[in-house]
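Final report, results section. Input specification for complex C-07:
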Amino acid sequence: MSEAAVRVEELRKVFDVPEREAGLRAATKSLVRRKTREVRAVDGISFEIAPAEIVGFLGPNGAGKTTTLKMLSGLLYPTGGEARVLGHVPSKRERDFLRRISLVMGNRNQLQWDLPALDSFELNRSIYRIPREDFFRARDEMIELLEIGDLVRKPVRQLSLGERMKVEIVGSLLHQPQVLFLDEPTIGLDVTMQKRIREFVAEYRQRHEATVMLTSHYMADVEALCERVIVIHHGRILFDGDLGALSDTVAAWKTIVVALENGARDLSAYGEVIHRDGDLVTLRVPKSETARVTARLLAEQEVLDLNVEDPPIEDVIELVFAREAAE
Amino acid sequence: MSTVPAPTQLVQEGRTRSLVDFYLTTMRTEVQLQFQYRAAIYMYLLGMVAEPVIYLVVWTTIAEQSGGTVGGLTTGELAAYYIVWTLVRNMNLVFTPYGWESRIREGKLSGQLLRPLHPIHYDIAEFAGGKFVWVLFYLPIAVVLTLVFHPTFDIRPLEVAVFAVAIWGAYLIRTFNQSSLGLITFWTTRVGALFQLYITLELLLSGRLVPLTLMPEWVQTVAWFLPFRWTFYFPIQTLVGDLSNEELLGGLAMQVFWIVVGIGVFSLVWRRAIRQYTAVGN
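Structure output:
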């Protein structure tokens, strides 16, 4: 069996955060005695990611996702536990390690603000010691794929958020990393742009057999790209497994969307009505009841159309968190 | 057909060769960047010229009132001192502790830490590139200053050669000193007060405020054992003073010594500092 591309064991990161009340009195007091609070951003997580695997890393804001990615890319020194990426200890930040990874953050700009992206790409070529021939080929092909031939010649500050993200991604992949940490790569982008970036990531991963860890607030990103998800909350892992299994384990219901000839009818006898839009009614029914309810609906109502769907992944994730809070 | 580039085994070029490539590329990029801000450079240079011109007017006035010299320096020598001063000042501009403060406090260092090259290389290369533009823009100002203040120069070829090396030595000493100071931001996010203290010491002990020969004997002795003298006074003196060959080469040796000390201190602090980095914001 080949060695895991990413291996994490009991990884922890604790921040000491200064804390004081508002006001002059508290400010004066803090001169003498500074109070700090321990924040466990990542609290003993363990997982492995195989080479060429793509994993969605999910959790609400402040769950510890970005802190984990920063530890795995060598930006943050862990408080405890162990992390290995491509056999390297990330916090040592060895050149060979940094040359083989990339961390793309949707809200960060790594390119020279006042110059065209082409100049920043050239700088990256020299930083990553990419042979010119490989550099030109990789650069031009990615520019063509993302259709950004005009954009890379404009100063970066003149680009829109979506345009900047595309050139940003090209800049981050010129050295052809084997492991990609993508932190909200589609944040703030319109649907078409999100789709374009997703397709690009999928294709890059396939061609390079790259390992990808992705965080995103857009479930469409996760559903389109990841078979496996790791759900993290309060620095701990709540779920690690198949995306479909997550839904099966946590959400014991399905939704039935039914279009009736006469939508005014009350369907609450069949299940919980969660949405009604004209003739279209959405019902939530226990998973074990789905077949029976569907048969009843078809037999007893004048049905124009009927769809049985898994619950949206957003709802499933919300349930995981709700369940954790209840425990 | 897929258009993403196929995986390739990247051929790693030699480390020295690729470092030279990095420096040249960064310097070229910086020159392009500076050319975009021509007006800003002139405003900045005019501001920078104000400082030595004030010193020069004050000392020339004092010299004229004391029979043409002050502390053994003629008005022509004082003019030469401050005209070369401006060139040296341009050459020893470095990435300041304020820059480090901002890059650490706001998390901007993250992008640089992800690269397989220490950020200090980028700072050195970036400011080195900028110097070619600043000096180019400074030359017409130097001509005007020469016409107005009539400096006296008596320059040997060896002095020019030593000067050409010494201004880069001064640049490196200041880079490592100020970057080491900047690293303190890893522990406390306000480094301004310490930087002010550093600048005050530099003003007094480097020859930046007045030529060191005008300072008391004991100050000159103290200055000889500190790095500041070798970042202003020594490079200026190579062109303006009357240094022997031994003094010229000895000065370069002192610069090498302070560069090595600077690299040592910086590396030591960096290794401890980087563990403190919290990568906030980004």
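Residues 119-149 of chain B form the longest helix (31 residues). Chain B has a mean pLDDT of 87. This concludes the modelling results for the funded period.
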